[in-house]
Amino acid sequence: MVFIFSYIIILELGSLLYGSYSSISFFIPKNPKNPKNPKNPKNPKNPKNPKNPKNPKNPKNPKNP
Fold first, then answer.
1. What is the C-alpha separation between 15 and 53, in angstroms, rounded?
2. Which pLDDT score is estimated for 37?
3. How far apart are CA 39 and CA 7, in angstroms?
4. From CA 49, how far away is CA 60, in angstroms rounded?
5. What is the pLDDT of residues 13-44, one digit of tens each?
């Protein structure tokens, strides 16, 4: 008998949690974190303005003065 009552209580708690989650998630907008085809990627393969260029135009310490 105790197992039956505990099983019923667990089922009721689960249904209450599911109902509250579904009602809350209805108001939250869905924004995917990792889209498959991003329009503006954070790390492009060919950046226009690299932070550390390989051949700088004005080096700070030239080898041949």
1. 58
2. 60
3. 50
4. 19
5. 999 988 887 777 766 777 766 656 656 556 55
